[in-house]
Amino acid sequence: ILNVEQSPQSLHVQEGDSTNFTCSFPSSNFYALHWYRWETAKSPEALFVMTLNGDEKKKGRISATLNTKEGYSYLYIKGSQPEDSATYLCASTQGGSEKLVFGKGTKLTVNP
Amino acid sequence: GAGVSQSPSNKVTEKGKDVELRCDPISGHTALYWYRQSLGQGLEFLIYFQGNSAPDKSGLPSDRFSAERTGGSVSTLTIQRTQQEDSAVYLCASSIIRGNQPQHFGDGTRLSIL
């Protein structure tokens, strides 16, 4: 059974603060790690897909790192803005399968 | 271009009724997935179709749940004899299968069983 854990569950920050969240996953049989952003009343939006140990990806003010040996990924947001408010989901795939196993997400609220 | 389309967006029905949820994936995407999010839970995998291969049904919670994908495109998720615990947001996603591609999600169907 593949368990993906995310922390914290929720986070409130002020506009301009930088923040980060953690995703942990079993490292055995690892295939890929996905990050999604899910805003209320919208569909989840893909941010990153990472596969290699040491991978770092960046999209604007958001970046992510991956450690497949110890089974964790960090998502960083630099200079948070109110429009960054959303639930950030990570999901892992295992053993060559494409089906995603999701964590419960980190709900970020950025106060203006 | 058009994204993943799901219908209906909301469905309220009485316990014991059957429901059908529809997903129209992005054109050219060979893989199609169904997930659901129950209250307080994370997104849970239900079923996965890839091209002409047999679907991976390992996430379906009971034999009341079934899904089909006709002509490699539109998919229908059917829940028979609905129960209150079936209340959830049902999400469909599609992707290109060429090594770890992101999945593209629809807006979901919010199903409420009275």
Low-confidence stretches of chain B are none
What percent of residues of chain A are in strands?
Answer: over 45%
- The number of strands of chain A is 11
Order of helices and strands of chain B: EEEEEEEEEE
Query: How would you characterize the largest beta sheet of chain A?
Result: 6 strands, mixed
Q: Determine the strand fraction of chain B and express it as a percent band.
A: over 45%
Largest interface (CB < 8 Å): A-B, 24 and 28 residues
Our Rg estimate of chain B from Cα atoms comes to 13 Å
Question: Layout of SSEs?
Answer:
The complex is a heterodimer of chains A (112) and B (114).
Chain A: E1 5-7, E2 10-14, E3 19-24, E4 30-38, E5 45-50, E6 56-59, E7 62-67, E8 72-77, E9 86-94, E10 101-102, E11 106-111
Parallel strand pairs in A: 2-11
Antiparallel strand pairs in A: 1-3, 3-8, 4-5, 4-9, 6-7, 7-8, 9-10, 9-11
Chain B: E1 5-7, E2 10-13, E3 19-24, E4 31-37, E5 44-50, E6 65-69, E7 75-79, E8 88-95, E9 104-105, E10 109-113
Parallel strand pairs in B: 2-10
Antiparallel strand pairs in B: 1-3, 3-7, 4-5, 4-8, 6-7, 8-9, 8-10
Keywords:
heterodimer; A: 112 residues; mainly beta; 6-stranded mixed β-sheet; B: 114 residues; 4-stranded antiparallel β-sheet; 0% helix; globular
Characterise the protein shown here.
The complex is a heterodimer of chains A (112) and B (114). Chain A is an all-beta fold. Chain A contains no helices and 11 strands. In chain A, the strands form 2 sheets. In chain A, strands 2, 4, 5, 9, 10 and 11 form a 6-stranded mixed sheet that branches. In chain A, strands 1-3-8-7-6 form a 5-stranded antiparallel sheet, with no helix packed on it. In chain A, a hairpin with a 6-residue loop joins strand 4 (30-38) and strand 5 (45-50). Chain A is globular. Chain A starts with a strand and ends with a strand. Chain B has 114 residues and is mainly beta. In chain B, 0% of the residues lie in helices and 46% in strands. Chain B contains no helices and 10 strands. In chain B, the strands form 2 sheets. In chain B, strands 2, 4, 5, 8, 9 and 10 form a 6-stranded mixed sheet that branches. A 4-stranded antiparallel sheet of chain B has the order 1-3-7-6, with no helix packed on it. In chain B, a hairpin with an 8-residue loop joins strand 8 and strand 9. Chain B starts with a strand and ends with a strand. The model of chain B has no long low-confidence stretch (mean pLDDT 93). Classes of the chains: A mainly beta (112), B mainly beta (114). At the A-B interface, strand 4, strand 5, strand 9 and strand 10 of A face strand 4, strand 5, strand 8 and strand 9 of B.
